[in-house]
Design a protein that fits this description.
elongated, alpha/beta, 4-stranded antiparallel beta sheet, Cyclic Phosphodiesterase, Chain: A, 2 domains, Rossmann fold, 36% helix, 5-stranded parallel beta sheet
Length: 423
């Protein structure tokens, strides 16, 4: 890549993985996806007109949904973006993911004129250390601020310590002045804060299903002053956090329709939130249903496009639908995390080729139980249910399978699964 052209700016941010609920929420909230560059329709907030929301989110929209680790800077003379990217990647390779959630909404600044942001309920100490490392280790890549920029910063009535930081690091809110936050609005009045805060707080419970994990250093780029920032690189953390030296495990759950795999997985997911166990969320060409599996819903064209890009670690077709497991499972395994996959009995042989050490968990239930659950699910009529029941008998657990009988309460079978995952 070319050397510094004078106006191109870079920033080192954290942005959630693009497949996550957090990223999708943040992009919809701000009305822009800084990875694709697409403008998105913002959420409809009761009591807030669409134009008002657009105006209140204009400033953070320009930067994209993120948390700042190293503030925007112009490349120093004599260094290239390639060299910057190499150094950022090297830093990423030294770090392990940091679980940040739970998150809360906070007004930063005065109550009558602050801005709203998402912040950790309890900020992990590793966050400040990571941000300080980014500021320090990448300092050689920035051009010092101009006199005009120094004057603009000082107009905010900085403390003497903040002014020292501005002169040393080019920004006043770094090092011990830094706080992790993901900005949602520009400055707004208490009147505007109230309906927005109520709506965002209601969303946090749903977002919390997926822990927010700082797992990458993201390079954002601004081509010219005033333009929106774009994410141009995302360097994932590769350091293993499994300090025991044991290899990470891939648990492959299978079972017939109605055996309760989805319920068992959700039972374990809720109890292992924030642990070193990751649960792969499937990509399926089927709409998300209330009470059903929590998956990424794609249409067939979207699924095939992802497949052609090599985005799936595993994929198969069953009952007229396409199913995919994202490549993120390889990253998790490399980081020393155990991974739980909601698999397919038909795909088992291929899965074993790809992951020879997988641990097979076979969930099953009696025919009476299966019939009852399938009828309650309400997706199919009697004939289709009987076909599924007949198909259930075509597959039997292999000798190495860990079998979980799920005929009684969810808690009974769920605790059995927990023992397998945590032993």
């Amino acid at each position: 890549m070319a050397l510094n052209g004078g106006t191109l700016r870079y920033a080192i941010y954290f942005a959630p993985t693009p497949e996550s609920r957090w990223w999708q929420f943040g992009c919809r909230w701000l009305g822009r996806d800084p990875l694709s560059g697409k403008t998105l329709r913002q959420f409809s907030i009761p009591g807030v007109k669409a134009q008002i929301l657009k105006e209140l989110t204009a400033e953070p929209r320009r930067y994209g949904f993120h948390a700042t680790l190293k503030p925007p800077f112009v490349l120093a003379d004599g260094v290239s973006s390639d060299e910057l990217f190499q150094q950022v990647e090297a830093l990423a390779n030294l770090h392990s993911p940091i679980v940040i959630s739970p998150m809360k909404l906070q007004c930063i600044g005065s109550a009558s004129g602050g801005f709203l942001a998402l912040v950790p309920v309890d900020e992990p100490m590793q966050l400040a250390a990571l941000a300080a490392t980014c500021v320090e280790q990448l300092d050689a890549f920035r051009t010092p601020p101009s006199p005009a920029e120094l004057s603009r910063r000082r107009a905010a009535q900085l403390s003497s310590h903040q002014d020292d930081l501005l002169q040393r690091w080019g920004y006043p809110y770094v090092m011990d002045e830094w706080r992790f936050h993901m900005t949602l609005t520009g400055r707004l009045s208490a009147h505007d804060q109230k309906p927005i805060a109520a709506w965002v707080n209601a969303q946090l419970a749903e977002l919390a299903v997926d822990p927010l994990v700082l797992d990458a250093l993201c390079v954002f780029q601004q081509a010219t002053p005033g333009e929106a920032f774009q994410m141009v690189q995302r360097f994932e953390f590769t350091r293993r956090d499994n300090t025991g030296g044991e290899p990470a495990r891939l648990f492959y759950l299978v079972g017939p329709s109605g055996a309760g795999k989805d319920s068992l997985i959700e039972y374990a997911r809720a109890r292992l939130s924030g642990s070193a166990v990751e649960f792969a969320r499937r990509y399926i060409t089927r709409p998300v249903e209330t009470g059903g599996e929590y998956h990424y819903a794609l249409n067939p064209d979207e699924f095939q496009a992802r497949s052609l890009r090599g985005a799936f670690a595993m994929q198969w077709k069953s009952h007229g639908q396409y199913y995919g497991i994202g490549k993120e499972i390889d990253r998790w395994l490399a980081q020393g995390k155990d991974v739980v996959v909601n698999g397919s009995r038909e795909y088992l042989d291929e899965a074993r080729v790809l992951y020879p050490e997988l641990i097979l968990i076979w969930v099953r239930a009696s025919t009476v139980t299966l019939r009852k659950r399938l009828a309650e699910r309400g997706r199919e009529g009697g004939a289709a249910i009987e076909q599924r029941l007949a198909r259930a008998t075509q597959f039997t657990p292999t000798p190495d399978a860990i079998v979980i009988e799920n005929n009684a309460s969810l808690g009974d079978a769920g605790e059995l699964l927990m023992r397998v995952l945590t032993r």
